[in-house]
Amino acid sequence: MGCIQSIRCKPKRFRDSIIVQEVNTSIDPNPTSIDESSSVVLRYRTPHFRAQARVLVPPVAGKESWTIGWIQACNHMEFYNTYGNKGMSSWELPDLRDGKIQAISDSDGVNYPWYGNTTETCTVVGPTKKDSKFTVSMNDNFYPSVTWGVPVSDSNVPQLSSIRRDQSFTTWLVAINQATSETLVLQTIRWRMRLHIQVDPKKPLAHRAVLNEPVAQEQPQILGKNEPIPSNAMVKPNANDAQVLMWRPKNGDPVVVIPPKY
Questions:
Q1: Does residue 107 fall inside a structural domain?
Q2: Residue 7 domain-assigned (yes or no)
Q3: Whole-number CA gyration radius for the chain
Q4: Mean pLDDT score, 158-169
Q5: Taken in order 223, 226, 227, 233, is the CA torsion positive or negative?
Q6: Which domain holds residue 58?
Q7: N vs C: which end of the chain shows fewer Cβ within 10 Å?
Q8: pTM for this model (two decimals)
């Protein structure tokens, strides 16, 4: 029994004593929905990725405060809209595309590095006398607008013929010490969203677009071994501010349609 006793006698470091009681993650089973109500843009809405964790934080002895919540980064993005034989527009993350970085923050752009600060995080402010139990949750999906017409022309003649998207994300459940910035990765999730929409621009509005694949997304993976968070996934810019809309014509040079915000 001596060994067990000696472990008991040694006060556990706080970082060893946060308990993740349960983690659930899924992508909703419904297919991507397509909205052709606008004569200017096609909109589509993908199913939601969801993650939820029940966490138990033991009493915090000192005046430390810890925030526990979700951080997400995009590891890969392909987002191509083809316009017949004219060319394609694509949303791109230049540093990720060129391999300069491995991932980019997918924070809400306000509460870096967190994905959000409503249901996504919880802060435990010490000293506390008893266990703190709480749930943190997040969800994510895509709801973009894609112009029917070539984005660099003044004409609104429908020429959109295909939309392809393939994006990968890593989502971490993390505890961060507010004073020291010590960061503990508690859980790592990987997920991916893919879609292919075929469009016949000659057909009348509301009858043009068909979802080819996939009807159901592959479900997220909870990794057995946690992955570290790349440093640039913790800081500005986030994916929304860094992305650029390019026009890549069949003939001629690429054009920046919408520059990055950042």
A1: yes
A2: no
A3: 22
A4: 98
A5: positive
A6: 12-258
A7: N
A8: 0.92
